Amino acid sequence: MRVLVIGGGPAGVNAALQAAALGARATLVERGRVGGTALNSGPAPVRTLARAARLVRDWNSWETFGLRGPRPEVDLAATLANAQRVADYAYHRRRVADHIRAAGVDLVEDAGDVRFRDANTVTTADGRTFTADRLIIAVGGRAARPSIPGAELGLTYEDVRTLTALPDRVAVIGGADTGCQLASILADFGSRVTLIESAPRIVARADADISSALEQAFRARGMDVHTGARVERLETCDAGVRVVFRMGEQAADVAVAAAFFAVGWPGNADLIGADAAGIAVEGGYVMTDEFLRTEVAHIFAAGDVNGHSMLVASATLEGRVAGENAVLGAHRRADHAIVPVGSFTDPEYAGVGLTEEQARSRYECAVAVAPYADLLRPVADGRPDGFCKLIVETASRQLVGAHVLGEYSAEVIQMVAACMAAGMRVEDVAELRPAFPTFTEGVAMAAQMLTRDLGVRPMSRLFWSSLT
């Protein structure tokens, strides 16, 4: 059996590797360099920029720890070069392409745009043709631009790497995960940031307590945050770009050196000639069933291009599922019930499972919030403004959601996700013994609070928290 995978990001790479492991003759065609947005321009380099921003931010707390010294200056060119170093690391130092080929996959890089000629055949920009029995579409997505006057004046997160100087004033349009990360990084670097979000709150898909606390933290750092605000147009001005927006009946504008769009991530399915293969596409996304199968039975789609989960971890899983289903037949579903999400803002936030609002609409629930001010490690680190929130379905006493704000949130949430995947009851989580002193003690503390409140068994609070 010949399996052709189009797109070499996490979904495509794992689909090709899985198909080859199952005995198929797998070919992976990538328009540029294998690794996709995740390694080349997204999480890997962005997380590196966030680390640099965190180092700058930590200078503000030096005096608390008895340290003295001048504020570090941001060498933007060197900072961006370091982010590119991390992006290059996996490809060159870890020899990703060699690993894929060694696993038996025929890897084709720098193929340019790939388009369907029919349901079994694709052609590349340079005229090469590939034919297969099964095909997997994994072409990812791209940063969106709104259909407003002057949209061409705006940038996206991908354009950060092209900056030659740090803008003194910036507008970030879109307050979901990407927009908040970008706003936070630029603010730490020293830009004055205005964040504009059309929804009633930033990170609207997160738990409401996370949204509220993050907005308060952003405002405390000097950011201008506007929610319920719709951008009407961008226009040139002496400062660079004027962003004109409206909040209800009130018109407003801000003049900035640069305006960044973070307003969505449409799939790239509209770029591959999907109609020639008879594949349904909506908004750039390929429509699939629970087996990641399109309406053309031998064609599957995995990763951002199907719009299901839009996360690297989900794309990796979907790639394996699509590869397996392509070779063995559609029998395995891609389950996204427990997918931890973390964002590298200041402060960090993370979540897994249902928000409190979602959980209460489905179950009888109990909720506990462990404040980081009651834990030794956050206080010792000078970062006590955070919390760990657990949501439990009372009948089963199992965790159905967790939300964390503060240092190392993206790491702490992994512990809760593992507990949920294992089907642990809250009293079992309460008996876990995280190392002392750590931020993960917040998970045990919240579980102990719930165990006591639900009347499962008498349980005192953690020693440190009981002293506060």
Write structural notes for this entry.
By secondary structure, the protein is of the alpha/beta class. 32% of the residues lie in helices and 23% in strands. It has a five-stranded parallel beta sheet. Helix 3 crosses helix 4. It is globular, with a radius of gyration of 24 Å. The N and C termini lie far apart (65 Å). The relative contact order is 0.12. The mean pLDDT is 92.
Annotate the secondary structure layout:
Layout (H helix, E strand, L loop, with lengths): L1 E5 L3 H12 L3 E5 L6 H5 L2 H16 L17 H18 L2 H7 L3 E3 L5 E5 L2 E4 L4 E3 L2 E4 L17 E2 L12 E5 L3 H13 L2 E5 L11 H13 L3 E3 L3 E8 L2 E8 L2 E7 L1 E4 L19 E2 L2 E2 L12 E3 L10 H17 L12 E3 L5 E5 L2 H7 L2 E7 L4 H5 L6 E7 L4 E8 L3 H13 L4 H5 L10 H13 L9 H4 L2
Parallel strand pairs: 1-2, 1-7, 2-3, 7-18, 8-15, 9-10, 9-15, 10-11
Antiparallel strand pairs: 4-5, 5-6, 12-13, 13-14, 16-17, 19-20, 20-23, 21-22, 22-23
Helix pairs in contact: 1-8, 3-4, 3-6
